């Protein structure tokens, strides 16, 4: 068995639900080429994007009656991967099926199981239920980032970059007081952080929602990291001094960080908010501000990836206090990868 550099037996977000139609969509997830399409009843099918005949990419073909037709010699496969037609002969040879991937469409996303299909467990999906709850309004975005996925996890879990990378957009203040306020802890196979800021001015984004027009606020920000590479950022604010327990976020940012290859990443993000529901101008604002910030992150992360790749001495990365959460996340991933390698050897 070959060694894998990505965690297997995991759900990875592979597309937004809107992206998958009756036209084939080819994508690479964790170095595996897949094709996604909808069957006649709208169910999403995910097959290996490699025809079992001569390995032509099925994603270049078309969907006919809910089945995918290979663009080369016209073999057809149903959503389960079974070959249903060989145009050039009557007999369908045995074993000529396309490899099928377990898939779940939920929370307006398409999650694909990378690993042993027998182990696919829906309970392992991240809980992004606000995406489809009437109590929240969500905007979705996507960035293709030419960098290793771990650099995206680092970025989301280390807030000390805000004052530098996002100087122009988020206009965040300096990082000096932040670290003192930030707690980081590991809970099972998750890493969590929490930071509470009392009696501060509302940020531009909070002000734009018109919840706090004047006056100062207490605010909190929490992050949750879950395997293989999900990060949930939650933000809450209340009028200063009104609450001790600030648990309920006013908006959340679920991040699905899906490796494409070792040096490229599909990044599906969203912002769900609990107020100004359905207000299109607020949705546009949230989308634009978040996209602008992630554009800045992506530019920095891609530049960083180029420097890491060309480093003649292959020096390891250095860790500061602000990296505590990403160090925790990387530790969980490394431990799991080791277990995976040991199990693969034993198999
Ligand atoms: S390669 Fe697909 S039908 Fe021949
Ligand atoms: Fe950022």
CATH topology of the largest domain: Naphthalene 1,2-dioxygenase Alpha Subunit, Chain A, domain 1
Distance between the ends: 8 Å
Q: What's the average pLDDT?
A: 92
How many structural domains can be distinguished in the coordinates? 2
Number of discrete helical segments: 6
User: What is the 3D form?
Assistant: globular
Strand order of the largest sheet: 11-17-16-15-14-13-12
State the CATH architecture of the largest domain.
Answer: Alpha-Beta Complex
Major β-sheet annotation: 7 strands, antiparallel
The top level CATH class name of the largest domain: Alpha Beta
Q: Cα-atom Rg, whole angstroms?
A: 22 Å
CATH superfamily of the largest domain: Naphthalene 1,2-dioxygenase Alpha Subunit, Chain A, domain 1
- Spans of 5+ residues with little confidence (pLDDT < 50)? none
Account of the 3D structure:
The protein is 22% helix and 32% strand. With 347 residues, the chain is of the alpha+beta class. It folds into 2 domains: 10-124, 3-layer Sandwich (Rieske Iron-sulfur Protein), CATH 2.102.10; 134-343, Naphthalene 1,2-dioxygenase Alpha Subunit, Chain A, domain 1 (Alpha-Beta Complex), CATH 3.90.380. A hairpin with a 5-residue loop joins strand 7 (76-77) and strand 8 (83-85). Helix 1 (149-157) runs antiparallel to helix 6. The model has no long low-confidence stretch (mean pLDDT 92).
């Amino acid at each position: 068995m070959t060694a894998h550099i990505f965690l297997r037996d995991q759900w990875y977000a592979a597309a937004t639900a809107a992206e998958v139609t009756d036209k084939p969509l080819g994508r690479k997830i964790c170095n595996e080429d897949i094709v996604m399409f909808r069957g006649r009843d709208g169910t999403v099918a995910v097959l290996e994007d490699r025809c079992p005949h001569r390995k032509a990419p099925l994603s270049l073909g078309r969907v006919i009656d809910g089945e995918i037709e290979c663009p080369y010699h016209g073999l057809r496969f149903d959503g389960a991967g079974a070959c249903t037609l060989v145009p050039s002969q009557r007999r369908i040879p045995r074993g000529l099926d396309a490899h099928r991937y377990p898939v779940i469409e939920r929370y307006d996303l398409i999650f694909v199981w990378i690993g042993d299909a027998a182990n696919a467990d829906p309970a392992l999906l991240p809980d992004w239920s606000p995406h489809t709850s009437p109590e929240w309004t969500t905007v979705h975005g996507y960035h293709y980032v030419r960098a290793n996925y771990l650099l995206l996890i680092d970025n989301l879990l280390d807030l000390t970059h805000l004052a530098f990378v996002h100087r122009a957009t988020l206009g965040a203040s300096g990082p000096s007081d932040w670290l003192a306020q930030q707690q980081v802890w590991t809970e099972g196979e998750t890493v969590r952080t929490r930071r509470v800021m009392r009696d501060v001015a509302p940020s531009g984004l909070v002000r734009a929602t018109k919840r706090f027009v004047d006056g100062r606020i207490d605010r909190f920000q929490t992050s949750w990291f879950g395997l293989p590479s999900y990060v949930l950022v939650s933000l809450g604010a209340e009028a200063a001094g009104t609450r001790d327990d600030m648990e309920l976020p006013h908006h959340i940012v679920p991040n699905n960080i899906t490796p494409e290859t070792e040096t490229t990443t599909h990044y599906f993000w969203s912002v769900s908010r609990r107020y100004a529901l359905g207000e299109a101008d607020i949705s546009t604002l949230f989308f634009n501000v978040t996209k602008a910030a992630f554009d800045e992150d992506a530019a920095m992360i891609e530049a960083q990836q180029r420097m890491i790749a060309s480093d003649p001495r292959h020096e390891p990365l250095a860790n500061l206090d602000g990296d505590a959460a990403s160090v925790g996340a990387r530790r969980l991933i490394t431990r799991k990868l080791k277990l995976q390698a040991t199990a693969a050897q034993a198999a």
